Amino acid sequence: MDDMLRGARMNDQRRSQRPALPACVLGLYVQHRDRGFVAHITASESVFSTVRGLTVSVLKAYGAGQAAADTAEWLVSELLGNAVRACGDYVPLVVEVYVTGRSVQVNVHDPAADRLPRRSAVAMDSDHAESGRGLGLLDVLAPGWDVVSSPVGKQIRCRIDAR
């Protein structure tokens, strides 16, 4: 019995040390995960803003540096924007952001398994291109990012240094 009480107290202490998650935002369901969060969202400008802010605050709370938190925020923003361009407004998405040892992991799931991101070398070199630079910047900021199948459709995974 004492072990059960001790375990319950330790769980309460761990819960109180976690960063606060938003109480209620329409189109957003957030859960804690080990050293980060998982957000199930319906794509909209207000939800994107909340998820970007959450990315920075949660990563910093779990020991990531400001530069890593800012980079992760940019990655989340770029990947969410790409998902909307591929799938349309109000698409259901899943965002995972968490610290793993010395790195930060950013994953975005979308339902368009058949619409894979395409890198465009021309857009990075052109002063006149209106889009297409994001994936080139992704290559620079999160080299080794990849796309895998997921139960939702596809998942784009990025890993960056946590410092």
List the helices and strands and how they pair.
Elements: H1 2-17, E1 28-33, E2 36-42, H2 45-61, H3 66-87, E3 92-100, E4 103-110, H4 121-125, H5 133-141, E5 146-149, E6 154-161
Antiparallel strand pairs: 1-2, 2-3, 3-4, 4-6, 5-6
Helix pairs in contact: 2-3
Short overview:
With 163 residues, the chain is α+β, with helices and mostly antiparallel strands.
What's the rounded overall pLDDT mean? 84
Estimate what percentage of residues fall within beta strands: 25-35%
Q: How many domain modules?
A: 1
Structural classification: alpha+beta
**Biggest β-sheet description:** 6 strands, antiparallel
Order of helices and strands: HEEHHEEHHEE
Radius of gyration, in angstroms, nearest whole number: 17 Å
Please mark out the parts with pLDDT under 50 across 5 or more consecutive residues, or reply none.
4-12
Please count the helical segments.
5
CATH superfamily: Histidine kinase-like ATPase, C-terminal domain
CATH topology grouping: Heat Shock Protein 90
Helix content: 40-55%
Question: What is the CATH domain class?
Answer: Alpha Beta
Overall, the morphology is: globular
First-to-last CA distance: 42 Å
CATH-defined architecture: 2-Layer Sandwich
Total E-strand runs: 6
> What is the topology, as strand order, of the major beta sheet?
1-2-3-4-6-5
Describe the structure.
With 163 residues, the chain is α+β, with helices and mostly antiparallel strands. It has one domain: Histidine kinase-like ATPase, C-terminal domain (Heat Shock Protein 90), CATH 3.30.565. 42% of the residues lie in helices and 26% in strands. It contains 5 helices and 6 strands. The chain has a 6-stranded antiparallel beta sheet with strand order 1-2-3-4-6-5, covered by helices on one side. Strand 5 and strand 6 form a beta hairpin. The chain is globular, with a radius of gyration of 17 Å. The protein starts with a helix and ends with a strand.
